[in-house]
Amino acid sequence: MKVFRLSVVIEERIDYYTDFKRLVRTDPINRIVLLSLKDTHKDHALLPLESDNVEAFKASALHGAVSSDEDFSDIISNLMGPGPWSIRKDIELPKSCNEIHFTNKNKKSNVTISHTLKVIFRVQRGDDQEMDLPTGKRKMFDIVVQTPIHILSVSAVSFTSAVDA
Question: What highest taxon heads this organism's lineage (predicted)?
Answer without folding.
Answer: Eukaryota
